[in-house]
């Protein structure tokens, strides 16, 4: 169900059917934390060569995450890094843990609340009952919270290849990759729907 909620002089658009409103102050911004990296490639669009219109802020964060994870050669070290990121995910209200906010297709329970603020920027909140999935959620929220809806739609699942945790073809590795893809797809579906609600723009992806 699509609804709008007044926030001061701005109008907040949200797809959440939760009974709670978004009148509370914005959650602590994930992008207040910047991974410490040894990045040699300064081209922020290096991982998005097929997405020339992707904004430098989103492209830069994507490049940072990819550099962070590719610098960790052992899968266990990547998992540990995700567990660290999971601890940075802002608290999620119990009232938002409802079926309407569940991300479909994940092996664990993942919840996502999407909204568009008065500045026409996407805002995301997420949580999971799995610490590793919470780490995935932090990465995606850190990367896409505050982005334009068009930028959210331009990110391709293949852009996340260097951030995948778990090597080889094990069932667990596939499950983790599916979590990335399903949360991203849900974010993009929300961005598309809210963009149409805001100005009638219908973008296929």
Question: Gyration radius, to the nearest Å?
Answer: 16 Å
Return residue spans where pLDDT drops below 50 for at least 5 consecutive residues.
Answer: 1-11, 16-52, 166-171
- Main sheet attributes: strand count, strand direction, barrel closure: 4 strands, antiparallel
Task: Give, in spatial order, the strands making up the sheet with the most strands.
Answer: 1-2-3-4
State the helicity in percent bands: 25-40%
Helix-strand sequence = EEHHEEHHH
Which features does this protein show?
four-stranded antiparallel sheet, globular, about 200 residues
In short:
Helix content is 37%, strand content 12%. With 205 residues, the protein is α+β, with helices and mostly antiparallel strands. A hairpin with a 5-residue loop joins strand 3 (110-116) and strand 4.
What does this structure look like?
It is a single chain. The protein has 205 residues and is of the alpha+beta class. Helix content is 37%, strand content 12%. The chain contains five helices and four strands; from the N terminus they run ββααββααα. It has helices at 56-70, 75-86, 131-144, 149-154, 171-199; strands at 3-7, 10-14, 110-116, 122-128. Strands 1-2-3-4 form a four-stranded antiparallel sheet. Strand 1 and strand 2 form a beta hairpin. It is globular.
